[in-house]
Amino acid sequence: MTRGLGLRSLGRVTIVDHSSTDSLTAQRFRRMSGAGSHSLPPVDLAGLPPGPKWPVLVQSAGLLRFRHWFHPYLRRKYGDTFTVRLVPGGRPLVFFTKPEHAKEIFAGDPEIFHAGKGNGILGPIMGEHSLLLQDGADHKRARKLLMPAFNGHALREYQSLVTSLAREEIARWESGTEFRSLERMNALTLEVILRVVFGVTDEERLAQMRPRVNATVEVSPAILLGWGYPRLQKFGPWKRTVQNQYALDRLIYAEIRERRSAADLAERTDVLSRLMLVRGDDGQDALNDMELRDQLVTLLLAGHETTATALAWALYEVGRNPDLLERTQAAATNGDDEWLDAVLKESMRLHPVIPMVVRTLMKPATIGGIDLPAGATVGPSIIVAHQKSENHPDPDAFQPERFLGQNPPTNTWIPFGGGVRRCIGAGFSLMEGVAVLREVFAAYDVTAVGDDEPKVRNITSVPRRGARIRVRARSFTG
Length: 478
Fold this sequence. Notes:
The chain is α+β, with helices and mostly antiparallel strands. The protein has one domain: CATH 1.10.630.10. Helix content is 48%, strand content 10%. The chain has helices at 18-32, 56-65, 67-78, 99-106, 123-126, 136-146, 152-170, 181-197, 203-217, 221-226, 236-260, 271-276, 289-303, 305-318, 322-334, 337-350, 382-387, 426-443; strands spanning 81-86, 91-96, 113-114, 178-180, 359-361, 365-367, 370-372, 377-380, 444-448, 454-457, 460-463, 468-473. Helix 1 (18-32) packs across helix 11, helix 7 packs across helix 8 and helix 9 runs antiparallel to helix 11.
């Protein structure tokens, strides 16, 4: 039998039709729209670090839509610590930009420094069981259950399939053509998620899931802001987003139901199958269908476009420098994964995909000598940390050498966050990225086309013009 689909008290039930999956989706939207804002105490704004006096909606839009200008502007104007007020309710978000402050936040007591509430804007899509939204004992339990699917042994088993998918993708590229590398990397990392994480092999279901997943990833900042106002879900783009979630949930729950009864479940190595085999203390399934759905969508949103964007920027940056291209091609040919790893990490530094890491204080706390009240949200700015010259000399230059044989000073390179909440898929992302770079540069000369800059798409930042490149098949003489 299938583990209960709703709250644990609902017991064991089996999904049998769309009406049951639709009811679960409806429950999630009711519970998670505006999640987190009503359970927090009022915040005393007195004594908080300075910040803009603009209307709350303007500050929220600046933070989401114009982050690459907004973060550095606020640091220049207000110093290393500043406050932004956000919808709904004008709740404060206090930014810290020194590595020692980031260390304090990452090392904070997880019972006080809650990450889940800070990520509440993603609740309607990810669900209450999402690793990114859980805190305290619930988060500790979920992370423990998911961790075996991302340990070193598991990553080595995933690598061959990732490499195979990368080869299939680049085999479709025509020598001499020019294209938006972000589009191709998105297509590739989507296949990795669907096949390696979800474990979907049926081509008909893959064809159904691809557009639904893309529509989920491409949610705009306006849609995210709208979750604070549940009535908007009845109108326009918010309504279409909800409808897409219903459709995607039906497909995911169908895959979960069929996988549980698969004869070869114990032999399968994809992430979903591994999670289904995890057992609780009572010997029963540790994760029910709703929990599996929420974790799969979390891995999708956290690991699809983020990795694709880092790869697109890496192709673009290497393609701008002939010497860098030559060294990277040599690394791909000779199996120098250390250099390819450095290229990927430098891409993540120079072009951060996620702008910040946040924690919401459940009790008063002191950070950097500043006393902060319960209910305030705090966090380091990834954008500022990666741009500061005291953290990274010549920060505007693309220099993979920064990561050769060393890492930058602690808490100055934080694309995966830090502490007990460091991204569980960090190792998977780096493994995937290195495998893709190896296949691309072993096969092609890559040249960047035109200039590019970041633009905001949902919670991520992507190349505005898609990181255009031209590829030409390498010629080997001997």
